[in-house]
């Protein structure tokens, strides 16, 4: 609720108004101001011409009597001047009505002046209704209402046409009902504002609780990854280092060195992931560059060093794809090579990149597993291809995976590299 002297909240929404009736509904209070201002023009003239009371009562009667006595052109001239004066006064009153919600003191001052001037009870009733509906200072409202009621009793009883009981009945009828309706509207407006504030506060608290739950879950996941995965990988690196030192031949030493290097890289990446998961102010996210297309030859060479037969080729003219497209392409080839090593060990693999003006097509094919090379496949979570598909969809691309007609398996993806594809990726990010 607004305080006295401050502009009350307007009914217009700060959001973009809906077309049609909603646009007019958002401006309903301002429209009501203009309608009331227009209505007070004939109302003021009626109060002045009918039987004015108060300070202007005797001058108005005197002007009317003189105009009737003189008659002729002079009487018409005097009557026109009196009419212009009434019109000017009505325009001034209507102008004040336009500021009824933003200038309550001006409204009450004009109500006092019109009431004492020519007995206008309409302006006083509108002032009480407006203040009760738009402002929450009940003490000031009571003082203003008592003052206007006193002025009304003085104007209509002291030398006026009414007795005190009749004037009291008029006060109840013309002031009591607008004041009661205004108090009901103001209380309802205050209740709605409090409920809205409470709902926003509860929603904010709910978001805070959700963030706390997410933070706690991320911390738990980081702790589990550190206690289980990092510990096992560290043991693997230590054993590989010992095997490299005490290897009986050069080939075994090279294999142990490759295992140790790969394990150390995995630990470094795992440490970066743990830094992101943990909610610690002193810890910062990893700043190491993410792998891109230029790192694919190194990835292929690592798998060749591990004993996999990998053939890499590309077609088209590489452009400058978005960073997310390059990261997604690298992860696609990485996941496909890992699957081939798990499920078809010893089978040759072919990696092919086809650069088009608006897309990048990636295919990774592995031949059927050679006979006699069956081995226990390493544990698999089953979420590799599902996670890869989600990553590719977020990048605005498509993915497919399935068996080849002559045996073997294919993992393929198409990623956008055009301007429109860039917009999709930026929206996803």
Automatic annotation (TrEMBL):
One of its GO terms (molecular function) is kinase activity. Its EC number is 2.7.13.3. The keyword Protease does not apply. It is an enzyme of class 2 (transferase). It catalyses: ATP + protein L-histidine = ADP + protein N-phospho-L-histidine. Residues 217-280 form the Signal transduction histidine kinase subgroup 3 dimerisation and phosphoacceptor domain. Residues 326-418 form the Histidine kinase/HSP90-like ATPase domain. The chain crosses the membrane at residues 31-50, 56-77, 84-100, 106-129, 141-159, 165-186. Pfam families: HATPase_c, HisKA_3. Keywords: ATP-binding, Kinase, Membrane, Nucleotide-binding, Phosphoprotein, Transferase, Transmembrane, Transmembrane helix, Two-component regulatory system. This is histidine kinase. It comes from Streptomonospora algeriensis.
């Amino acid at each position: 609720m607004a305080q006295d002297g401050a502009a009350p909240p307007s009914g217009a929404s700060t959001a973009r108004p809906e077309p049609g009736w909603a646009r007019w509904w958002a401006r309903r209070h301002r429209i009501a101001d203009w309608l009331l201002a227009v209505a007070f023009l004939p109302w003021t003239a009626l109060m002045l011409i009918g039987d004015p009371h108060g300070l202007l009562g005797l001058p108005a009667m005197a002007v009317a009597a003189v105009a009737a006595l003189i008659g002729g052109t002079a009487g018409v001239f005097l009557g026109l001047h009196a009419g212009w004066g009434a019109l000017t006064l009505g325009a001034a009153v209507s102008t004040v009505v336009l500021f009824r919600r933003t200038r309550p003191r001006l409204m009450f001052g004009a109500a006092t002046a019109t009431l004492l001037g020519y007995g206008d009870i309409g302006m006083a009733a509108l002032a009480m209704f407006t203040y009760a509906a738009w402002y929450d200072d009940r003490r000031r409202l009571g003082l203003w209402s008592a003052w206007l009621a006193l002025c009304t009793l003085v104007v209509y009883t002291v030398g006026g046409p009414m007795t005190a009981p009749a004037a009291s009945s008029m006060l109840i009828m013309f002031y009591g009902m607008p004041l009661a309706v205004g108090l009901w509207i103001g209380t309802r407006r205050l209740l709605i504002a409090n409920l809205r504030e409470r709902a926003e506060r509860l929603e904010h608290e709910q978001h805070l609780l959700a963030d706390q739950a997410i933070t706690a879950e991320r911390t738990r996941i980081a702790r589990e990854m550190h206690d289980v995965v990092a510990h096992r990988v560290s043991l693997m690196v230590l054993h590989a280092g010992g095997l490299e030192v005490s290897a009986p031949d050069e080939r075994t030493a090279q294999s142990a060195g490759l295992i140790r290097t790969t394990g150390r890289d995995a630990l470094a990446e795992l440490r970066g992931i743990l830094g992101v998961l943990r909610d610690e102010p002193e810890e910062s996210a990893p700043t190491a560059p993410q792998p891109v297309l230029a790192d694919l030859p190194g990835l292929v060479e690592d798998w060749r060093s591990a004993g996999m037969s990998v053939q890499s080729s590309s077609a088209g003219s590489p452009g400058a794809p978005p960073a997310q497209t390059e990261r997604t392409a690298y992860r696609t080839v990485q996941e496909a090579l890992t699957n081939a090593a798990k499920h078809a060990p010893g089978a040759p693999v072919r990696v092919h990149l086809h650069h088009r003006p608006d897309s990048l097509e990636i295919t990774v094919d592995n031949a059927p597993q050679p006979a006699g090379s069956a081995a226990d496949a390493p544990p698999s979570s089953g979420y590799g291809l599902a996670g890869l598909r989600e990553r590719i969809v977020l990048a605005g691309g498509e993915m497919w995976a399935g068996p080849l007609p002559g045996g073997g398996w294919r993992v393929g993806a198409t990623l956008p590299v055009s301007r429109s594809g860039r917009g999709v990726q930026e929206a996803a990010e």
